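Re: that backbone. Tokens:
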């Protein structure tokens, strides 16, 4: 009897508490709890981040933001953005919100700070920057060919391949590849470029897929888009049959089955803080595999070269769209994040201001690098 009475009293207390919570706050808390739980269960780098000693800091932030929501000190979009920025600013640029003004403004501020830190003169003309890069493939001088790749989206694939063919048909010995403001897309756009820039193997690497039902939706979508390919379906079946938290997507011994080419003498890859994802893959490749090619710039790339296979999950009430990585490279586990600074650092710092205009033009950076390549 006493047990039944206690249960009844608890039920009444719970009803009173729930009734006291405004419906809008209840929905915000539901979304926040859904977000944190989803990230912990599906975000590929999460376990590695916790293993690196950030567990206490993470738990404190999670609790603090929950308290701010309950007290009305932050709305859902603000709290969710601050939660995701903790990962984005320290570990991985791939995680973020789509179509969120609060998150978008935070990212703009981050990029502006990165550029200003690299070039204090940017403060005087930041509002006059015209960054809208277009594909370019042309001769800079008798020694150097220039290729600007504004995106790794499939729509740019043919143009990127054609640009490389134009260089190969030229009498130029040096090559500049401009991936400033390239936000990424698909890595396979660089296949021919890898062949040309490769000099030596690197240590073995692996990519690991976080094996959850939600994450498998990424591969199911890819499989539907490529019904003739058996690899995707086989990988899905492999994951479904596995009880492991992570399934290996692939591994390379570093050789990549490429023979060094003598076609090119010197090369440069131009980066900025907007260079991201599949664009970073090219910079990462030359860092590891090339002696003749160097990365040029003033600041690091965005910082999502060690994660991939991004999908989106929508929060149930606010409909905020969370984008996150379902796969993580083995290099992520080895990287020291405590030193700060995400992304790939340039090998050569360009002693010029950021370009005021980046469209289909040849700017001062390109001319400076062309001269520098001839000195090597």
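Recovered sequence:
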């Amino acid at each position: 009897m006493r047990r039944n009475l206690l249960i009844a009293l608890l039920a009444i207390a719970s009803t009173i508490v729930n009734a006291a919570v405004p419906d809008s706050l209840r929905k915000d808390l539901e979304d926040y709890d859904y977000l944190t739980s989803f990230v912990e269960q599906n975000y590929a780098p999460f376990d590695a981040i916790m293993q690196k000693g950030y567990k206490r800091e993470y738990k404190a932030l999670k609790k603090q933001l929950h308290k701010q929501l309950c007290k009305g000190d932050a709305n859902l979009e603000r709290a969710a953005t601050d939660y995701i920025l903790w990962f984005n600013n320290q570990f991985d640029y791939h995680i973020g919100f789509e179509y969120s003004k609060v998150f978008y403004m935070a990212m703009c501020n981050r990029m502006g700070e990165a550029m200003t830190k690299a070039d204090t003169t940017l403060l005087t003309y930041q509002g006059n920057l015209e960054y809208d890069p277009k594909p370019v493939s042309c001769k800079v001088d008798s020694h150097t060919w220039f290729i600007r790749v504004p995106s790794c989206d499939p729509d740019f694939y043919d143009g990127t391949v054609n640009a490389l063919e134009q260089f190969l048909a030229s009498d130029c010995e040096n090559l500049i590849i401009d991936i400033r403001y390239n936000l990424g897309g698909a890595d396979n756009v660089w296949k021919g470029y890898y062949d040309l820039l490769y000099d030596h193997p690197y240590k073995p690497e692996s990519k690991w897929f976080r094996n959850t039902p939600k994450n498998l939706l990424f591969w199911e979508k890819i499989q539907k888009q490529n019904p003739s390919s058996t690899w995707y379906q086989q990988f899905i079946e492999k994951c479904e049959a596995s009880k492991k938290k992570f399934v290996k997507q692939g591994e390379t011994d570093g050789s990549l089955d490429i023979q060094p080419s003598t076609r090119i003498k010197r090369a440069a890859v131009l980066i900025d803080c907007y260079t991201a994802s599949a664009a970073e893959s090219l910079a990462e490749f030359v860092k590891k595999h090339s002696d003749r090619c160097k990365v040029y710039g003033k600041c690091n790339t965005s910082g999502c070269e060690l994660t991939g296979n991004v999908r989106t999950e929508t929060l149930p009430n606010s409909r905020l769209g969370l984008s996150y990585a379902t796969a993580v490279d083995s290099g992520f586990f080895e990287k020291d994040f405590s030193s700060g600074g995400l992304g790939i650092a340039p090998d050569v710092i360009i002693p010029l201001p950021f370009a005021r205009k980046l469209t289909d033009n040849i700017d001062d950076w390109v001319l400076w690098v062309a001269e520098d390549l001839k000195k090597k």
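The two ends are 89 Å apart (CA to CA). Residues 1 and 108 are 62 Å apart (CA to CA).
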